[in-house]
């Protein structure tokens, strides 16, 4: 499992490379946030997305509702516009394994993740265009939607976070 691998080999590599004096300074992944924005969605679509994201992440997602009414978009306050879920601890590592070793290789035209997607504080964000790359989801002529993933780490710089994620197995491309 990914967590046991992290505890030994990756931690020792990071301690050597960045010469940490305290073991608590070694960066690790703290959480993964998944967001699916649907815009204006009907009740059936939202229920389908909630079911699919629950299958993918093994955790029930939260329905995101509109904060303000926007007449140009025919959007009223309180209407469902998306779904989000935050993964921590064991579920996070299980999802990360399935993402790295099963889902991303199944993605069409996938060449790798860009190293420029860090935010300056050690967090990494990227998007997936199709949710059907996960084997848990059965595609039955429904709507295909994308999702945004943010991997939050305890690293303070992009360099530390890049080294951590590349050692875990993220397929980065120049």
Automatic annotation (TrEMBL):
- Keyword set for this entry? Ribonucleoprotein, Ribosomal protein, RNA-binding, rRNA-binding, tRNA-binding
Top-rank taxon? Bacteria
State whether keyword ATP-binding applies: no
Domain Large ribosomal subunit protein uL5 C-terminal, first and last residues per copy: 80-172
> Tell me, what's a Pfam family for it?
Ribosomal_L5
In terms of InterPro entries, this protein maps to: Ribosomal_uL5, Ribosomal_uL5_bac-type, Ribosomal_uL5_C, Ribosomal_uL5_dom_sf, Ribosomal_uL5_N
Residues covered by the Large ribosomal subunit protein uL5 N-terminal domain: 22-76
Share what the entry says about its subunit structure, partners included. Part of the 50S ribosomal subunit; part of the 5S rRNA/L5/L18/L25 subcomplex. Contacts the 5S rRNA and the P site tRNA. Forms a bridge to the 30S subunit in the 70S ribosome.
Sequence similarity: Belongs to the universal ribosomal protein uL5 family.
Summary of the function given for this chain in its UniProt record: This is 1 of the proteins that bind and probably mediate the attachment of the 5S RNA into the large ribosomal subunit, where it forms part of the central protuberance. In the 70S ribosome it contacts protein S13 of the 30S subunit (bridge B1b), connecting the 2 subunits; this bridge is implicated in subunit movement. Contacts the P site tRNA; the 5S rRNA and some of its associated proteins might help stabilize positioning of ribosome-bound tRNAs.
The record ties this protein, via HAMAP family, to: Ribosomal_uL5_B (MF_01333_B)
- Descriptive protein name: Large ribosomal subunit protein uL5
Organism, scientific name: Candidatus Xenohaliotis californiensis
């Amino acid at each position: 499992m990914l967590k046991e691998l992290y505890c030994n080999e990756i931690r020792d590599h990071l301690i050597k490379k960045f010469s940490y004096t305290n073991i608590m300074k070694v960066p690790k992944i703290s959480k993964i946030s998944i967001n699916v924005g649907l815009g204006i969605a009907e009740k059936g679509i939202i229920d389908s997305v909630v079911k699919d994201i629950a299958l993918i992440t093994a955790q029930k997602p939260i329905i995101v509702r509109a904060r303000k009414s926007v007449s140009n978009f025919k959007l009223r306050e309180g209407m469902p516009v998306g779904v989000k879920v935050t993964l921590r601890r064991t579920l996070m590592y299980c999802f990360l394994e399935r993402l790295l070793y099963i889902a991303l290789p199944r993605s069409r035209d996938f060449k790798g993740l860009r190293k420029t997607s860090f935010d300056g504080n050690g967090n990494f964000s990227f998007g997936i265009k199709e949710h059907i790359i996960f084997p848990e989801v059965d595609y039955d002529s429904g709507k295909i939607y994308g999702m945004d993933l943010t991997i939050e780490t305890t690293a303070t710089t992009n360099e530390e976070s890049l080294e951590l994620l590349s050692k875990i197995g993220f397929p980065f491309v120049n």
